[in-house]
Every structure is written in structure tokens, then in C-alpha cells.
Amino acid sequence: MPIIEELAAAVSLFHSLADPSRLLILRRLSQSEARVRDLTDELGLAQSTVSEHVACLRDCGLVTARAEGRQNFYSVATPEVLDVLESAEQLLASTGHKVDLCTTYGSQTR
Fold this sequence. Notes:
Strand order of the largest sheet: 1-2
Helix content: 40-55%
Number of helices: 6
Largest sheet: 2 strands, antiparallel
Mean pLDDT: 92
Oligomer: single chain
Shape: globular
Low-confidence stretches: none
Order of helices and strands: HHHHHEEH
Number of strands: 2
Structural class: mainly alpha
Distance between the termini: 34 Å
């Protein structure tokens, strides 16, 4: 199997994390479970935006839902999700956030 095919799942994982709204949602869910309404109110995002991103995170297996009556409470699926986010923060700190200055992927290119 070519190396690029072996990396497909990792590419998909990082792509699923490559959105500021999804990262905000994951960061918030790392504190405690929440409903879409809670996320909408706390993060200042539109309900449709939160619903779309929560669905993406759920489809990717990064978030799970617990039904209670007519409501769904969302939480981070596994501790490894939080480990990845923490590792990313440590990497950013150790590189001095140089990736943000990257002429290909940095914030000035968006």
C-alpha cells in the first residue's frame, strides 16, 4: 500500500479539526457535555453552524450524544481527542506559533 493511502485516516482526522468552529466546540465540550442550544449561547455561533459542526464531529467519531427526553447532550467521545488537542497546543508553544506565520497555511493566507 502506498504511504499516502496509509496516511489517509490521519489526513481526514486533521481535516476534521481544521475549522475554528469545530475547535471551539471541542474545547467547550472538553469542560462538560452540552446541548446545541448551550453551545450556541456560549460560543456566539448560529444554531445552524453549531448543528452542522457537531454533526461533522459526531460523524468523525470525535463527539458522542446522550439522549435525554427530546434533547441530546454532546460530549467528547474519548480522552484521546483531548490528548490530540493538548499535544497541538504544546507543539504550538514549543515552535513559537511559527505555523501561523507560514506563507502557505498561516493566518495571513486566509
